[in-house]
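Dear support,

We are seeing what looks like truncated structure output for some complexes. This example has two components. We would appreciate it if you could run it in full and send us the complete C-alpha coordinate output so we can diff it against ours.
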Amino acid sequence: AQSVTQPDIHITVSEGASLELRCNYSYGATPYLFWYVQSPGQGLQLLLKYFSGDTLVQGIKGFEAEFKRSQSSFNLRKPSVHWSDAAEYFCAVGPRGRGKLQFGAGTQVVVTP
Amino acid sequence: DSGVTQTPKHLITATGQRVTLRCSPRSGDLSVYWYQQSLDQGLQFLIQYYNGEERAKGNILERFSAQQFPDLHSELNLSSLELGDSALYFCASSVGTSGEADTQYFGPGTRLTVL
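Here is the complete output from our reference environment:
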Protein backbone atom coordinates (compact mmCIF):
# COMPACT_ATOMS: atom_id res chain seq x y z
CA ALA A 1 0.00 0.00 0.00
CA GLN A 2 1.15 3.54 -0.70
CA SER A 3 2.10 5.53 2.37
CA VAL A 4 3.89 8.62 3.60
CA THR A 5 5.47 8.55 7.03
CA GLN A 6 6.69 11.44 9.10
CA PRO A 7 8.13 9.67 12.13
CA ASP A 8 8.35 12.74 14.35
CA ILE A 9 5.03 14.16 15.49
CA HIS A 10 6.63 16.97 17.46
CA ILE A 11 10.12 18.53 17.44
CA THR A 12 11.45 21.27 19.70
CA VAL A 13 14.48 23.20 18.51
CA SER A 14 16.34 26.22 19.80
CA GLU A 15 16.44 29.36 17.71
CA GLY A 16 19.62 29.33 15.65
CA ALA A 17 20.00 25.55 15.79
CA SER A 18 19.70 23.29 12.78
CA LEU A 19 16.51 21.42 11.94
CA GLU A 20 15.90 18.17 10.10
CA LEU A 21 12.45 16.74 9.47
CA ARG A 22 12.14 13.20 8.23
CA CYS A 23 9.88 11.85 5.52
CA ASN A 24 9.72 8.31 4.19
CA TYR A 25 7.40 7.06 1.50
CA SER A 26 6.28 3.78 0.07
CA TYR A 27 5.26 3.97 -3.57
CA GLY A 28 5.31 1.76 -6.65
CA ALA A 29 7.49 4.19 -8.57
CA THR A 30 9.32 7.37 -7.70
CA PRO A 31 6.60 9.91 -7.07
CA TYR A 32 6.69 13.65 -7.11
CA LEU A 33 7.71 14.92 -3.65
CA PHE A 34 6.76 18.07 -1.82
CA TRP A 35 7.12 19.82 1.52
CA TYR A 36 4.44 22.23 2.68
CA VAL A 37 4.28 24.37 5.82
CA GLN A 38 1.14 25.36 7.71
CA SER A 39 1.34 28.22 10.19
CA PRO A 40 -1.41 28.49 12.83
CA GLY A 41 -4.70 29.42 11.23
CA GLN A 42 -3.13 29.55 7.79
CA GLY A 43 -3.27 27.52 4.61
CA LEU A 44 -0.53 25.32 3.23
CA GLN A 45 2.46 27.05 1.73
CA LEU A 46 4.73 25.19 -0.68
CA LEU A 47 8.32 25.11 0.58
CA LEU A 48 9.92 23.02 -2.14
CA LYS A 49 9.35 20.20 -4.59
CA TYR A 50 11.21 17.41 -6.34
CA PHE A 51 10.28 16.09 -9.75
CA SER A 52 13.57 14.87 -11.20
CA GLY A 53 17.22 15.79 -11.62
CA ASP A 54 19.41 17.09 -8.82
CA THR A 55 18.47 15.24 -5.65
CA LEU A 56 19.21 18.24 -3.43
CA VAL A 57 16.51 20.85 -3.90
CA GLN A 58 16.41 24.36 -2.55
CA GLY A 59 13.22 25.98 -1.40
CA ILE A 60 11.94 29.15 0.13
CA LYS A 61 12.78 30.50 3.59
CA GLY A 62 16.23 28.86 3.55
CA PHE A 63 14.95 25.26 3.48
CA GLU A 64 16.40 22.44 1.44
CA ALA A 65 15.53 18.78 1.00
CA GLU A 66 17.39 15.75 -0.22
CA PHE A 67 15.80 12.92 -2.17
CA LYS A 68 17.39 9.54 -1.47
CA ARG A 69 15.95 6.89 -3.72
CA SER A 70 17.67 4.00 -1.94
CA GLN A 71 16.10 5.02 1.36
CA SER A 72 12.75 6.23 -0.07
CA SER A 73 13.28 9.42 1.87
CA PHE A 74 12.88 13.12 1.31
CA ASN A 75 14.14 14.86 4.43
CA LEU A 76 13.79 18.59 4.97
CA ARG A 77 16.61 20.64 6.50
CA LYS A 78 17.36 24.16 7.61
CA PRO A 79 20.79 25.16 8.94
CA SER A 80 19.57 27.80 11.39
CA VAL A 81 15.95 28.14 12.47
CA HIS A 82 14.18 31.37 13.22
CA TRP A 83 11.28 31.84 15.63
CA SER A 84 9.03 32.35 12.60
CA ASP A 85 9.72 28.75 11.50
CA ALA A 86 7.44 27.47 14.26
CA ALA A 87 4.66 25.73 12.33
CA GLU A 88 3.47 22.33 11.16
CA TYR A 89 5.33 20.77 8.27
CA PHE A 90 3.83 18.26 5.87
CA CYS A 91 5.56 15.97 3.45
CA ALA A 92 3.44 15.01 0.45
CA VAL A 93 3.83 12.66 -2.47
CA GLY A 94 1.97 12.61 -5.74
CA PRO A 95 1.80 10.00 -8.47
CA ARG A 96 3.36 11.22 -11.67
CA GLY A 97 0.75 12.85 -13.85
CA ARG A 98 -2.23 11.97 -11.71
CA GLY A 99 -2.59 14.95 -9.46
CA LYS A 100 -3.78 13.98 -6.05
CA LEU A 101 -1.38 14.38 -3.15
CA GLN A 102 -0.99 12.00 -0.26
CA PHE A 103 0.17 13.74 2.90
CA GLY A 104 2.08 12.60 5.91
CA ALA A 105 0.64 13.20 9.37
CA GLY A 106 2.75 16.30 9.83
CA THR A 107 5.52 17.36 12.21
CA GLN A 108 4.87 20.19 14.64
CA VAL A 109 7.97 22.33 15.12
CA VAL A 110 8.34 24.45 18.25
CA VAL A 111 11.16 27.00 18.37
CA THR A 112 12.47 28.03 21.78
CA PRO A 113 14.47 31.19 22.51
CA ASP B 1 -0.60 34.69 -0.74
CA SER B 2 -0.91 31.75 -3.14
CA GLY B 3 -3.49 33.41 -5.39
CA VAL B 4 -6.10 30.77 -4.56
CA THR B 5 -9.13 32.24 -2.82
CA GLN B 6 -11.72 30.43 -0.75
CA THR B 7 -14.98 31.64 0.72
CA PRO B 8 -16.25 31.71 3.33
CA LYS B 9 -13.38 31.64 5.80
CA HIS B 10 -15.56 30.21 8.56
CA LEU B 11 -18.88 28.44 8.46
CA ILE B 12 -20.95 27.32 11.44
CA THR B 13 -24.03 25.25 10.80
CA ALA B 14 -26.19 22.53 12.30
CA THR B 15 -26.41 18.81 11.69
CA GLY B 16 -28.54 17.86 8.72
CA GLN B 17 -27.89 21.11 6.89
CA ARG B 18 -26.28 21.71 3.49
CA VAL B 19 -23.43 24.13 2.76
CA THR B 20 -21.47 25.24 -0.28
CA LEU B 21 -17.80 26.09 -0.22
CA ARG B 22 -16.33 28.14 -3.02
CA CYS B 23 -12.86 28.23 -4.53
CA SER B 24 -11.30 30.45 -7.18
CA PRO B 25 -8.04 29.06 -8.60
CA ARG B 26 -4.95 31.05 -9.46
CA SER B 27 -5.17 32.89 -12.72
CA GLY B 28 -4.31 30.48 -15.53
CA ASP B 29 -4.72 27.31 -13.48
CA LEU B 30 -7.05 24.72 -14.99
CA SER B 31 -6.99 22.11 -12.26
CA VAL B 32 -8.74 22.37 -8.90
CA TYR B 33 -8.41 19.97 -5.97
CA TRP B 34 -10.34 19.67 -2.73
CA TYR B 35 -8.85 18.35 0.50
CA GLN B 36 -10.24 17.84 3.98
CA GLN B 37 -8.09 18.32 7.07
CA SER B 38 -9.37 16.88 10.34
CA LEU B 39 -7.68 15.95 13.60
CA ASP B 40 -8.36 12.24 13.26
CA GLN B 41 -7.87 11.77 9.49
CA GLY B 42 -5.23 14.38 8.72
CA LEU B 43 -5.15 15.81 5.20
CA GLN B 44 -7.23 13.74 2.81
CA PHE B 45 -7.72 14.23 -0.91
CA LEU B 46 -11.38 14.47 -1.89
CA ILE B 47 -11.71 15.24 -5.58
CA GLN B 48 -9.99 16.88 -8.56
CA TYR B 49 -11.39 18.74 -11.53
CA TYR B 50 -9.52 19.69 -14.65
CA ASN B 51 -11.01 22.24 -17.05
CA GLY B 52 -14.53 21.43 -15.93
CA GLU B 53 -14.24 17.66 -15.91
CA GLU B 54 -13.85 15.36 -12.93
CA ARG B 55 -10.34 13.93 -13.09
CA ALA B 56 -9.76 11.96 -9.89
CA LYS B 57 -11.74 10.98 -6.85
CA GLY B 58 -10.51 10.19 -3.37
CA ASN B 59 -12.31 9.33 -0.18
CA ILE B 60 -15.23 11.63 -0.86
CA LEU B 61 -18.51 10.77 0.82
CA GLU B 62 -21.65 10.35 -1.28
CA ARG B 63 -23.15 13.26 0.68
CA PHE B 64 -20.45 15.48 -0.81
CA SER B 65 -20.30 16.67 -4.39
CA ALA B 66 -18.30 19.19 -6.36
CA GLN B 67 -18.20 20.88 -9.70
CA GLN B 68 -16.02 23.21 -11.69
CA PHE B 69 -17.67 25.94 -13.69
CA PRO B 70 -16.73 27.41 -17.10
CA ASP B 71 -14.93 30.28 -15.41
CA LEU B 72 -12.89 27.57 -13.59
CA HIS B 73 -14.07 28.35 -10.08
CA SER B 74 -15.19 25.34 -8.12
CA GLU B 75 -17.76 24.61 -5.47
CA LEU B 76 -17.84 21.81 -2.93
CA ASN B 77 -21.32 20.94 -1.69
CA LEU B 78 -21.71 19.15 1.62
CA SER B 79 -25.16 17.89 2.55
CA SER B 80 -26.84 16.08 5.45
CA LEU B 81 -24.02 17.35 7.59
CA GLU B 82 -22.83 15.35 10.57
CA LEU B 83 -20.69 16.37 13.53
CA GLY B 84 -17.79 14.44 12.02
CA ASP B 85 -17.78 16.68 8.94
CA SER B 86 -16.35 19.50 11.03
CA ALA B 87 -12.95 20.14 9.48
CA LEU B 88 -10.81 22.53 7.51
CA TYR B 89 -11.52 22.24 3.80
CA PHE B 90 -8.76 23.29 1.44
CA CYS B 91 -8.86 24.03 -2.23
CA ALA B 92 -5.70 23.85 -4.31
CA SER B 93 -5.03 24.63 -7.94
CA SER B 94 -2.41 23.81 -10.52
CA VAL B 95 -1.75 24.72 -14.11
CA GLY B 96 -2.13 21.22 -15.47
CA THR B 97 -1.81 17.61 -14.52
CA SER B 98 1.67 16.47 -15.49
CA GLY B 99 5.19 17.33 -14.54
CA GLU B 100 5.86 20.60 -12.80
CA ALA B 101 2.52 21.89 -14.07
CA ASP B 102 1.07 19.62 -11.43
CA THR B 103 2.45 21.68 -8.54
CA GLN B 104 -0.47 22.46 -6.28
CA TYR B 105 -0.94 25.81 -4.56
CA PHE B 106 -3.33 25.91 -1.64
CA GLY B 107 -5.91 28.42 -0.56
CA PRO B 108 -6.37 29.58 3.06
CA GLY B 109 -9.14 27.06 3.70
CA THR B 110 -12.71 27.14 4.97
CA ARG B 111 -13.22 26.06 8.56
CA LEU B 112 -16.53 24.23 8.87
CA THR B 113 -18.06 23.67 12.27
CA VAL B 114 -21.13 21.47 12.52
CA LEU B 115 -23.04 21.81 15.80
